[in-house]
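Notes from hallway chat w/ T.B., transcribed later so I don't forget. T.B. wanted the structure written out for a chain they're using in a teaching module, and asked if we could keep both sequence and structure tokens in one place. Agreed to drop them here.
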Amino acid sequence: MDNKTQLFEPLFEKIENYAKTSFELYKLKTINKSVDIVSNSVSRIIAITLFSIFIVTANIGVSLWLGDLLGKSYYGFFCVAGFYGVIGTFVYFVLHKPIKKCVSNSIITQLLN
């Protein structure tokens, strides 16, 4: 009986080492994927924030310019707001599903690669 335990003891040690190594590898892959997703998200958030500041500033300028052309400054703001209302309606009713599909595929690709 003692002879059989001596045969299985190295096997159990190898299984234990394999399990520990597999768990460590899984943990490192998870950390790597999390860091990749967070870093992509942070860089995109920074880019979107800067682009949004540019768009807001440009919209204010265009609104004031249109208002100057139309005679009252608030007319320009109404024109720009109407433009964004039309664009928003178009995006919501026409492009909602393709945008949703594209974002979903991007998230799944990031998680699986």
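Follow-up for T.B.: The radius of gyration is 29 Å. Might be a good example for the class.
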